[in-house]
Design goal:
mainly alpha, Four Helix Bundle (Hemerythrin (Met), subunit A), globular
Amino acid sequence: MSGKHKEWLKQADYDMDTADAMFSSGRYFYSVFMCHLSIEKALKGLYSHDLKEIPPKTHNLIYLLNKINKRPGMKLEKFVTKLNTASVATRYPDDLDKIQEAYTKDITMEMIKNSKDMLQWIKTQF
């Protein structure tokens, strides 16, 4: 597993940059989707680093945090739960208009900020 975690983190950073690009273009729910993907990859990097195993093919952030057995603090943990819930809705929206209404500019801006905070916390765990 040596070094694999670096690739996961590289991709997590790339996906966070993509979240910013989607936000700038007004594609807010895609921005939230990319936030989820970024945190997922960062957690998989931490998983591979700490457990010396290939991470499971899951999108469940809570599951990954539980397997790693690390806690980011109450505020970020609540955020991860929220982001985890957003995964299915942003990945497979039932109704484009409704999802666009749910992820406004302000809500998405907050999701990006919290995602960057979570990403930073993950990086401090190596």
